[in-house]
Design goal:
By secondary structure, this protein is mainly alpha-helical. It has helices at residues 2-55, 62-77, 83-103, 110-141, 144-148.
């Protein structure tokens, strides 16, 4: 009798430990999503700042400068709901700037253009990391054991933004 109670208690203890382990793993993935988003957000803010610096160059025509300034300010000041559209707009404006630069050699500061190219590469990597983290957390949360025992607690479901699908 005591032996069977000890076995049941051990199995219950093992089950509780396993659920705690799974909850910790999910918490780590949520933390990874948050840190990858913070890093990506910092890169996007830096890209908008570089775009503003470029837009103030006298080498740009006024229309391109105005478009670039407006989209950069919109990207810097957008709240989380408007962020996706603002970042897509800035990406399109920067593509227009690159197309214009290829057609006519301009007097733009080459250091700014190099920094923009570097930050764009970092953003591409940051988007990949963030997307991977979101997909990992979502796939783990979709498992029945996580839903039955509500191991995610009150953490919001990680999400991707549509601008992450843009080719920067």
């Amino acid at each position: 009798m005591i032996k069977s109670i000890l076995i049941v208690a051990f199995i219950l203890l093992l089950g509780v430990w396993y659920l705690s382990f799974l909850a910790s793993r999910l918490d780590g993935l949520h933390h990874r999503v948050e840190t990858s988003w913070e890093h990506l957000d910092a890169l996007l803010q830096r890209r908008a700042a570089i775009a503003l610096e470029i837009s103030h160059s006298i080498a740009l025509d006024p229309a391109t400068s105005l478009l670039l300034t407006a989209s950069a300010y919109q990207a810097r000041e957008a709240n989380i709901v408007e962020r996706s559209e603002a970042e897509s707009s800035l990406s399109e404006s920067l593509k227009l700037l690159r197309a214009e630069e290829l057609q006519t050699p301009s007097g733009l500061d080459p250091q700014l253009l190099e920094e923009l190219a570097r930050i764009t590469e970092k953003i591409s990597v940051g988007i990949t990391i963030h997307t991977e983290a979101v997909m990992s957390a979502r796939s783990l949360r979709d498992r029945p054991l996580f839903r039955i025992f509500r191991l995610a607690g009150h953490a919001p479901l990680p999400m991707r933004y549509s601008f992450e699908d843009d080719i920067l």
